[in-house]
Amino acid sequence: MEQMDGTSVTACERCPELCASRSRIVNGVGPEDAAIVFVGEAPGATEDERGEPFVGRSGDVLDNALRDVGLARTDVRITNCVRCRPPDNRDPTSEELANCESYLDRELELVDPDVIVTLGKVPSEHLLDRSVGITSEAGSVEEVRIGGQSRRVLLSVHPAATLYDRSQRSTFEETIATAADLGGAGGSGGQSRQESTSNERERFAGREPPQ
Ligand code: URA
Question: How far is Cα 112 from Cα 109, in angstroms, rounded to an integer?
């Protein structure tokens, strides 16, 4: 049985191994009209326990970087490619990514953000459908067709990478600043499109992607 209610998957049994390992389905959080959507790989142990994406150590890194550019976690939408925790924190398989793809496509269609930020190699490769050297490509922007729609995707290193390799911290922070610009925040906070002014939207609508 599978069921989606708006942006939330309320029941799904597409991946037998994940059904066995999960405590719950971890859906995206944040405004359903957010200008910026962050897409991670899959829930970890803390996310599985609390039912919310990026609430462990990686989430702290993301929250701090958002705060530095004048954004709160609640200003943006945060979701994952795969909504159930893989056992032993392994990467999701290509089959699991494919099984969950229509849910992410639907969420992105409903939210219709100005920019999608892929957090790490797995979501970057999944959304771009090609191999990605995330360390060298972080900060770059591509137009990608997702669910039949052209979307602006900004590639980022995974927040956890900054914990293990401090040299990645500035790359991550600069990418979050770019996300804020592309999402129309410009570092002044306030991120759902209902709240952003039409001037801001116009100002960023024709912006050239950074190199
Ligand atoms: N890493 C991810 O990719 N997603 C989460 O929700 C948490 C950590």
Answer: 5
Give the chain's domains with CATH numbers.
3-204 (3.40.470.10)
- What's the 50 CA to ligand 1 centre distance in angstroms? 12
Query: What does the block give as tokens for 74?
Result: 């609640």
Alpha-helical runs (H) found in 71-119 = 94-111
| pLDDT tens string 167-206 | 999 999 999 999 999 999 754 444 565 554 333 333 233 3
Our answer on whether the CB atom of 200 is closer than 6 Å to any ligand 1 atom is: no
- CA 198 to ligand 1 center in whole angstroms: 32
- H-assigned helices in 69-197: 94-111, 121-128, 134-137, 161-164, 168-182
From 28, 19, 41, select the one nearest 87 (Cα to Cα).
19
